[in-house]
């Protein structure tokens, strides 16, 4: 089971992610969008969407730092393990709460607005369930191990995560990892595999080309700027 969960499942997840992105881009390029429903309702969306996006961004950054920035690096910057633990505990919990609050508002908006609800696919409903489960389980795992400096995942989960990139998973690092963290990780991998098949795929659509496109030139409607209008033809005069 250890080999299956921590030596096979991560690569299956990555394969599903890449294959899904390639398939979606090739066969559903015009569906590669958030399918915005702002035209149906914008008041609640203007609150829920920023809360979700900022929250999930902080959650993502926290995971990247925790998993891929070695403890020796933060120590060299003068950040003690206790300070890092407090920042991870309070900052991660706040980001998680903000994200969940945004998701709850988005779900409420979809359930109470018929046109918005009709635009929600079965995959998106599954995505909401898995996303909420992953975030809540992460907060539960963190809050359940708050004594002292908490569970030091940077000595176990983080080295294992980095070892995946060498194609030699360090399975021994996962020995003794608390069950709550293991459940959080499995749900997280399921979420990653689902990304290409839901509206979350738009995270890979950063409009980088906007930085290099030509300037847009707008023409004014002032008659003096446009110059004299040409004389109308016969059929145009008849319709005026």
Automatic annotation (TrEMBL):
Segments forming domain NarG-like: 3-221
Coiled coil: none
Membrane topology recorded in Swiss-Prot or TrEMBL: Multi-pass membrane protein
Gene from which this protein is expressed: narI
Primary localization class, coarse: membrane
Keywords from the UniProt entry: Cell membrane, Electron transport, Heme, Iron, Membrane, Metal-binding, Nitrate assimilation, Oxidoreductase, Transmembrane, Transmembrane helix, Transport
Source species of the chain: Streptomyces coerulescens
A Pfam short name: Nitrate_red_gam
Protein name: Respiratory nitrate reductase subunit gamma
InterPro entries: Heme-iron_electron_transfer, NarG-like_domain, NarG-like_sf, Nitrate_red_gam
SUPFAM superfamilies: Respiratory nitrate reductase 1 gamma chain (SSF103501)
Membrane spanning stretches: 6-23, 44-69, 89-108, 128-145, 179-197
The keyword Transmembrane helix is annotated on this UniProt entry: yes
Compartments where found: Cell membrane
């Amino acid at each position: 089971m250890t080999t299956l969960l921590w030596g096979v499942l991560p690569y299956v997840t990555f394969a599903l992610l890449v294959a899904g992105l390639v398939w979606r881009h090739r066969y559903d390029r015009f569906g590669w969008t958030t399918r915005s429903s702002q035209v149906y309702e914008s008041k609640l969306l203007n609150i829920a969407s920023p809360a979700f996006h900022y929250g999930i961004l902080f959650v993502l950054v926290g995971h990247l730092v925790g998993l891929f920035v070695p403890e020796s690096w933060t120590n060299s910057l003068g950040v003690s393990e206790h300070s890092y633990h407090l920042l991870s505990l309070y900052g991660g919990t706040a980001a998680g709460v903000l994200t969940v609050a945004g998701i709850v508002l988005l779900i409420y908006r979809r359930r109470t607005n018929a046109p918005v609800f009709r635009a929600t696919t079965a995959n998106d409903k599954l995505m909401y369930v898995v996303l909420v489960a992953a975030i809540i389980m992460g907060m539960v795992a963190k809050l359940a191990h708050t004594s002292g400096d908490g569970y030091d995942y940077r000595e176990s989960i983080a080295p294992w995560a980095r070892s995946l990139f060498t194609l030699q998973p360090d399975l021994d690092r996962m020995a003794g990892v608390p069950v709550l963290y293991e459940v959080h990780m499995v749900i997280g991998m399921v979420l990653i595999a689902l990304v290409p098949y839901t509206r979350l795929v738009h995270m890979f659509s950063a409009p980088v080309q906007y930085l290099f496109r030509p300037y847009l030139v707008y023409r004014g409607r002032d008659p003096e700027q446009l110059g004299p209008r040409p004389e109308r033809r016969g059929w145009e005069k008849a319709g005026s």
